[in-house]
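>> received
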Amino acid sequence: MENKVSRPIWRRNLYVLWGCTFVAGIAFSEVGPFLSLFISQIGDFSHQELNFYSGIIYAVSFLVTAFMAPLWGKLAGNRGHRIILFVTAGGMAIIYILTGFVHNVVLLFLARAAIGAFSGYIPNAQALVAAQVPRDKSGRLLGTLMTGSTSGVLVGPVLGGVLSHIFSIRQTFFITGGLLLIVAFLSVSLVKEHVPDGKTVATHTKRKGGLFKQFSNPRLIMVLLISTLIVQLGNSSIFPIISLYVRQLMHGHGAITVIAGVISALPGISNIMAAPRLGQYGDHHGSGKVLIAGYLFAILVYLPQGFFASLWILGILRFLVGISDAALFPTIQTLLTKNSPPEALSDIFAWNQSFQALGSMFGALWGGAVAGMFGYNMVFMSTAVLLLINFVLLWFTEPSLRGSKAV
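>> returned
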């Protein structure tokens, strides 16, 4: 039962951090539409050089995030989430502002690596809320919180394109940095970190032994982390080729970039609509049921995308992908929350972000390689195969996920 002290704290934190993760999501995604264009403005490169620099500069932030995320989780466990929220948002703000001044690809590469180093904001926000909300409502509330970052990622490319068109690419970096500074100060001034029994954060989060020794079912935790990687790999494999696939379906004529942008946004729209509802269903009927159904649904909507050369069918199926994502990502986090002791939440959410970042990096490489060798259609079909393999892994390694309400 919620006590009179903790209830207003977690509710206010949920509202504040929803807005803050929304802005952080924008910051992560808005440079996508014009990163290669910005690279072309700061140097005279051939077509091959431009593609090479764009690829490694895009990937480096995810690579660094994968290594830094566990460190932020450990620091949050020792120092508290609120100070880490301030440091990561403030660090990103400074790096974005400095990025607006770079004039060569080496400095841009270092700036993107630094952004990856400070990208611990969203998982720490999720870990803070997960540690405070009632566990019988964690599915719905974490699903609601995730719509913040999802909405930001959805809005980011559109907002970035508009800002760079009205102002300039450099000024867009400055504006983003200013917004992140606001996020940093809101996080430290409005977010409250309540620890039961009046203990200090360091005392409350003190751990015994290694990370996985704290869990009653460490195999489940490991399978869930691998699942995060595979689901994100599947999602990211589509990103490098979706606009090219749309151009192919439109035979190179019409408002290709506009249509590609709309189709790219469709999964985010359906995700926002479905995530809280699916989370609430999981709270009442078992998160394992939602996870298994999410995998089966994802396989069914990914596979046809490789067979039908229709823009309308592609749009409908991409919309349905957002529903499968709403069943998978928040449910994985809910299961991690329900099967982790409170003192391990910071670490486990950080490791989850690390696996997700690796999925983003490997997914982009996978999608580009498969599209180059076998064509765009095979990217969708290979993603369905990966999700099927992940489903089989879950089904046979963790019987507890086959619909048990305990999880």
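>> The two ends are 19 Å apart (CA to CA).
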